[in-house]
Amino acid sequence: MPDDAFILRSARGIPYYSCREFESLPGVRHAFSTRAGGLPDLPSPLLTLRQVHSNRVCVVELPPGAWDPPEGDALAAAHPGAALGVRSADCFPVLVADPVAGAVAAVHSGWRGTLAGIAAETVGALGRAFGSRPGDLHVAVGPGIRSCCFEVGPEVADAFAAGYPGTARPAPGRPGKFLLDLPRVLEAQLEAAGVARGRRYDSGLCTFCNPRDFFSYRREGAAAGRMMSVIALG
Ligand SMILES: [Zn+2]
What we know:
This protein is of the alpha+beta class.
């Protein structure tokens, strides 16, 4: 994974992060906002979710009229102009693009959704709804709380250790606490779902470590704002 997989761009002077490889995908626009909130122009109003830390994927089959945000943690669409967004502040935003089938998805993957397999569910839903082949997908994992900072208790560590050995290691000097590596879990899930290694991109950015750029629920508490990560067609 190159260190410069993600770069800072700006929209009207407000910075946002961009996945360099996604920029060359025809017909796809995307952005991971910072706490400054800047986003590039989108082709239509943003569709979002009522996020509940589940593994539920909502497929938008046609351009919607009025949008009543459904409950779920991933949105997928293939109609021209589709603009999808997820909010996060420590949970991982995951954007998916299929330039062959002309489909995109936005995923909210915190520890609960990750444990429930939301990313792999999204790969499956794209296949069923739009004929996407996993090998054609490009997947960008945005900023979230990484293993440098994501301390969890033994129950959560055990839940991951069972399916993903080595992803929760004892926190130095913190008896009974563990550091959980969610990007590594996502890598394993995407690999198992058939997404090619060379098409998986990781920002390497930790929301907890970078207060200048990102909100962090762990750092700022319930009053923390949210970043918006978006992907659009057209
Ligand atoms: Zn960190």
